[in-house]
Amino acid sequence: MRWAHAVLAISVVWVWTTAVLGAEGVADPVTGLSAAEAREGFVSIFDGKSLKGWVGLNGRTDSYYVKDGMLICKDTGKDHIFTEKEYANFVLRLEIRLDTGSNNGVGVRDRISPQPHLEGNEIQVLDDSYFPCWKHGQKLELKPYQYHGSLYGVVPAKRGHLKPPGQWNEEEIVCDHRHLKVTLNGVVIVDCNLDEVQPIDGHDHPGLKYEKGHIGLHAHGNYGAEVFFRNIRIKEL
Asked: What is the set of domains in the chain, with CATH numbers?
């Protein structure tokens, strides 16, 4: 009898430990937020079911739709969306899946503007493997600052760490005062001081000076391909 009680006690402890501790790294299937991340201070900014908490320029959000826990930019989408809330210093984590020809951008410290890549800071989202290509009789080739993960128009990203179309990429963007860091699939691909960089695309980038702004998803037409986002969460610093 005592042996049976001991076995039962051990079983209860094992079940409790598995339920409480084993679930620490298990993400919510809809929001992608794990218990460990929640304790660190991360919160989801996409509920996996709707565009609640997001707004569009002039109220237009129809370039995006939600399906199966994903926030999807249509293949013809050209309208940007932004978080209602502004953020100053933060760690942003999200997952991105590209199709052949996908083109988008993750904006940090954005203004709600038709040109958030200037009135903000765009971290490029692009299927690099699609280029070079021919469009309307013209050969399109990427400049160094146009590859995926680059601070668009300003700081080129390290290449070779983007997964092929159809696979999910894990991306983290840190904005800590003047420090900007982008990590793609565990590799740091951009690491810079915003006071020490200059635009290299021939345009003024006033967004480099902004101390806070919205998180944005920038639709660029996508060359006939959709862009998929999920598990978007943020921790304010």
From this structure: 30-236 (2.60.120.560)
